[in-house]
Each structure stands twice: as C-alpha cells, then as structure tokens.
Write a structure and sequence with these properties.
The protein is mainly α. The relative contact order is 0.21. The longest helix is centred in the first third of the chain and has 32 residues. α1 packs antiparallel against α3 and α2 crosses α3. The chain has one domain. The model has no long low-confidence stretch (mean pLDDT about 90).
C-alpha cells in the first residue's frame, strides 16, 4: 500500500509544481503587458500562447469587461491558489495516510 501512497505523493508534488509554474507565467505575462512588449519576441509569444487559452475562457465569464483593467489574471491566480489548497493538499494528506 505504501507504493500507492508514494505515487500519490509524487503526483501531488508534480501538480503543485506545475500549478506554481503556471501561476508565475501568468504573473510575468501581466507584468510584461504593462510595458508594451514586442509581439515578435519569442518569449512574449510563448507567454501569450501558454496563458491565453485559460485567460480567454475567464474573460468570457467576467460581466464587466469594459472597465479598462483586465481582471482575468487575478481570477486565474486565485483559482490556482484555491486548487492548490483544496486538491493538492488533500492528495498529499491522502498519500501520507496510505504510506
């Protein structure tokens, strides 16, 4: 049974790391958008391609889009933090009880 606990712990750790990296990608993209970046820069293109699918879906549900501030990164960051606290910590605790 300890093997399943170790696998579940590894899955929780990998999920935590992936969510943290994605959160930082969104933060960096938000900061870069303040300085009018070069759209042909490969780093800027990567940031847009990596974050736009999620941000676009969140923007579709925001009722007040025309206020001049894009709130979708904040909403996504809060969702990531909630997911890390609710799911990742639960997986880690389940792994500890299995092992």
């Amino acid at each position: 049974m300890f093997v399943a606990g170790n696998l579940l712990g590894a899955l929780a750790t990998m999920l935590d790391m992936a969510l943290t990296i994605y959160m930082w990608l969104i933060i960096v993209r938000s900061l870069i958008s303040w300085v009018n970046p070069d759209p042909y820069n490969p780093i800027v293109q990567f940031l847009i391609r990596a974050t736009e699918p999620v941000l676009m879906r969140v923007r579709a549900f925001i009722p007040f889009r025309n206020i001049g501030i894009d709130l979708s990164p904040i909403i996504v960051i809060f969702a990531i933090i909630f997911f890390k606290q609710a799911v990742v910590l639960s997986l880690m605790q389940a792994a500890r009880t299995m092992g």
